[in-house]
Design brief:
Length: 223
Amino acid sequence: MIDRARRRFLDVLASIYIYNEHRGYSSIDRVLEAVYARHSSETWFIDAVEKHRRDERKHYLMFRHYFEQIGRMPYAVDRSCGHIDRLIYLTFGCGIDELDTDAVTADDELFFKLCRIIMITEIRGMNQLEVLLEDKLVTSDEQLKKIFEVIRIDEPSHWMPYRDWLLKNNGGDPKWNERAADWAVHKSLVLWKVPSLLLTPGLKRRTEWHDASDPPGPLLEAA
């Protein structure tokens, strides 16, 4: 019974992560659209955002491989487990898929806001990794531990370019309400969503991979 509970916890944790990695790289496509349109001369920033996108895709594929090796599909978690999903909704008033890319491209303040949201999401993720990698239950799974160690190495390069871009363009630090939204999303995930998934009987697993419906394109493949 103890081993079954351990396995369920790790599956829930990895299911939340693979969902967020997929939403991460697909949402970065919106940022790239805006950068290509308005800031094509800022090649250093474009390179950094493209690397961020490739890394998120790479992390997604690592989790997919993890599930393939253990012979199970991820649990069918939804947007309520998505940090970026919920943070975008709380700060922009809409979901990622409904975010008006043209409006963000046309308005510097909206683009600054999007960069701040991505930055604080990545910082939150980096800090959470430190907690997970000190958890004996998590590190008891050697493959999962290795995935989290790779992500920890990549994380600084995911938020620092947004910080530098904001500093260079007077985009400001994260606002109090953006930080408050990040705190609220994190606490609700840790204190409510994860426990509720662990206790949900008959929790369904996905029947296809998250990227099955990804649009084709040159950015689809990991580096």
